[in-house]
């Protein structure tokens, strides 16, 4: 805690730009707090007219979604951002409900429910396209161990992020034929969902 009893904890949030002299007036911009939410200040995100998602890996690494179709990454607490190359068709949007960070891993979907995953390596964010086992995917989640869970109408599946592989191997971990099961779920620590 600081001398005035405020928590020294960094956090990010998205809010509307209310500065009518700003080029991003009325759009969603990134805010940062270094006092556990006691005060917030707008952050510079060049080339990003609209911030739609924000997530933190740790106290220094943060990732944002810009203009609905770009990933930008900061390794210096949001002071500077760089665009991350994503093997995604131009014009495809990143889905808000399918954007999740856990420990050193990130997953998100874009376009026609295509799954992407990423991980931190030597201070950089690496993004890869995941090979899907089923075109009828509904929801995804990732845990701190890099396990990805997917729920479909055919069951719940699990895979493991492997930095050395392009394709992910999926195994079914639920009874078959869960027709109609398509609700959001949360991945907890270890193997729990």
Q: Numbering strands along the chain, what is their spatial order in the largest sheet?
A: 4-5-6-7
Low-confidence stretches: none
Strand fraction: 35-45%
Rg is: 18 Å
Structural class: mainly beta
* Strand element count: 15
Order of helices and strands: EEEEEEEEEEEEEEE
The best one-word shape is globular
**N→C terminal distance:** 34 Å
The biggest beta sheet is recorded as: 4 strands, antiparallel
Q: Quickly count the helices.
A: 0
| Overall pLDDT confidence | 79
Question: Share of helix among residues?
Answer: under 10%
Q: Quick recap of the structure?
A:
The protein has no helices and 15 strands. The chain has 193 residues and is mainly β.
Can you describe what's shown?
The mean pLDDT is 79. The chain is built from no helices and 15 strands. The radius of gyration is 18 Å and the shape is globular. With 193 residues, the protein is mainly β. The strands form 4 sheets. It has a 4-stranded antiparallel β-sheet, with no helix packed on it. A hairpin with a 5-residue loop joins strand 4 (51-56) and strand 5.
Write the layout of secondary structure elements.
Elements: E1 11-16, E2 28-33, E3 41-42, E4 51-56, E5 62-66, E6 70-74, E7 82-84, E8 94-102, E9 105-110, E10 114-121, E11 124-129, E12 137-142, E13 147-152, E14 155-160, E15 170-172
Antiparallel strand pairs: 1-2, 2-3, 4-5, 5-6, 6-7, 8-9, 9-10, 10-11, 12-13, 13-14, 14-15
Question: What structural keywords apply?
Answer:
four-stranded antiparallel beta sheet; mainly beta; 15 strands; 193 residues
């Amino acid at each position: 805690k600081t001398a005035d009893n405020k928590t020294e904890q960094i956090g990010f949030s998205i809010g509307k730009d209310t500065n009518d002299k700003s080029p991003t007036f009325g759009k969603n911009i990134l805010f940062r707090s270094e006092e556990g939410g006691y005060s917030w200040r707008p952050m510079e995100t060049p080339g990003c007219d609209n911030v739609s998602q924000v997530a933190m890996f740790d106290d220094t690494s943060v990732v944002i979604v810009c203009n609905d179709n770009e990933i930008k990454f900061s390794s210096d607490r949001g002071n500077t951002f760089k665009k991350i190359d994503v093997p995604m068709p131009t014009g495809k949007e990143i889905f808000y409900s399918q954007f999740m960070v856990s420990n050193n891993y990130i997953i998100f979907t874009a376009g026609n429910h295509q799954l992407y995953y990423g991980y931190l390596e030597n201070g950089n964010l690496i993004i890869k396209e995941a090979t899907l086992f089923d075109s009828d995917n509904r929801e995804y989640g990732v845990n701190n161990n890099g396990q990805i869970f997917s729920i479909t109408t055919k069951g719940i599946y699990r895979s493991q992020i492997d930095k050395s592989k392009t394709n992910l191997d999926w195994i079914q971990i639920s009874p078959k034929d869960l027709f109609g099961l398509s609700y959001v779920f949360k991945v907890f620590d270890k193997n729990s969902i």
